[in-house]
Amino acid sequence: MRYTISKHKKMKYTLLLPLLAFTMAFTCYACATTSTNIEPHAVNGHWLQTGATVAIDFTLGAAEVLPSSVYAVDTADLATVKKQYGVLKSTIKQQRQQLAQQYNQASTDSSKAVALQQARQYLHQVLVNDVFPTWYGTEWDFNGYTNHPRDGQIACGYFVSTTLKHTGININRYDVAKQYSHSIVKTLCTSDSIQRITNFDQLLKYLNNRPNDLYIVGLDSHVGFLQKSDEGIFFIHSNYIGPVAVEKELATQSEALQYSEVWVLGHLMSNDALIKKWLTGISIPVVE
Prior knowledge:
By secondary structure, the chain is an alpha+beta fold. 42% of the residues lie in helices and 17% in strands. It contains 9 helices and 10 strands.
């Protein structure tokens, strides 16, 4: 199965972008107002590249990175996706419980730090390599709040809150998703880890000078994840432009990411407080 995203379509969305963003700024709080020890598994899918037709099978955690705006779509039938995702959530829960036990049994500061780092690495990898890819291709909708990947529509705020909820982070996905994009960052990240940036080049410079991490970024009227890795900087979000779906794209190629006056950036995986709450199951309250 092959997909094509034409350059002509991309240009059309580019021309409509200012009007769309202006409308959303007055009507959207983060695009949403409604309402284990795991082995990496293979998912058959395709990399989609803007302006070209590409079909490459990939294995989660070992996918080729194309030099353009890209995302991967699971082409399995919906019943298979639901079954695999259910197994994934169960195994994440099992692994979280094991990691929590290791952390609680650690008797020294150094051993607790090791256990916390193991938990951090696991949560980071399972989000990037397993949870997010299952959602790629799920349709964006302004009022979307589906709880199942590729079944229904999902707004940008709900994509953030739902994927984190499914890993075991104890949040109310409805309350978080309904927040303004900047407030979502404040809810999930400690204040000392949040940066307010007013220039896109400064955003890239800041990330390039930081270690690999998973971040959450709140824009003027949009929210999503930023992944800093050895392969580059990627924006993972439910996109209201282009494919109008959940996707992973190069930050430098993302129109949605660039079309903002302010970027509120929070460190997600390097946030010790969040990792500890994930391990212990402590509820994370909404912060305005």
